[in-house]
Write a structure and sequence with these properties.
The protein has 190 residues and is mainly alpha-helical. Helices cover 75% and strands 0% of the residues. The protein contains eight helices and no strands.
């Protein structure tokens, strides 16, 4: 990485510079390393807020960057690289949660059966999280995305508006409807 001679800080690379490095057969590896170095920490925390555990986050971040590396040659530049990578990360994290939710529902059924047979009630938090996961998965894609960005990432409506190219009012309505649907799904499961 080049250092800025005046400040001795690492040079900031634009999306165009990184893409140019990746597309150059002699600079491809450097381009990929810079791409990861620049975005890895932010993407880690996006995923972590969705999946919860460090181990699952590591798995999802690896899948995210693999998918991104495979698709970078077809990146059209209609959004910033981070926005594009963020979308991949959210999709991968939600897929992981869906997979975990399916596994957890099986465990939950086993736990319910164990309780009926005299088991202990030490899985309440896990059951609540499973219900929330199930309710989120039942949302339409747009509402799911808005809910994840607002609830898990605590993103402001203004930032979401810029990121998703949607009005603040539409995002607030989408979030409101998502919350109501989640509440309804959870109530119906009880």
């Amino acid at each position: 990485m080049q250092l800025n001679k005046v400040t001795s800080e690492p040079k900031q690379y634009s999306d165009e510079e990184i893409l140019s490095l990746i597309r150059d057969p002699h600079q491809k590896e450097l381009g990929y390393r810079l791409f990861m170095r620049i975005h890895q920490e932010r993407i880690y925390w996006v995923i972590r807020k969705i999946v919860g555990s460090h181990e699952d986050t590591d798995d999802v971040i690896q899948n995210t960057f693999l998918k991104a590396f495979k698709a970078l040659s077809t990146f059209e530049g209609r959004s910033a690289l981070y926005t594009w990578l963020h979308r991949i990360a959210v999709n991968e994290a939600l897929a992981m949660r869906k997979s975990k939710m399916s596994e957890a529902m099986i465990v939950s059924l086993d736990t319910t059966q164990a309780k009926e047979e005299g088991g202990h009630d030490d899985v309440t938090a896990e059951i609540i999280r499973n219900k929330l996961d199930h309710a989120i998965e039942a949302l339409p894609e747009k509402q799911k995305e808005v809910f994840v960005l607002r609830y898990f990432e605590e993103m402001s409506y203004q930032d979401m508006s810029e990121k998703l190219n949607t009005s603040v009012g539409a995002l607030k309505a989408s979030y409101h409807f998502a919350v109501k649907k989640i509440e309804s799904v959870i109530k119906n499961e009880e």
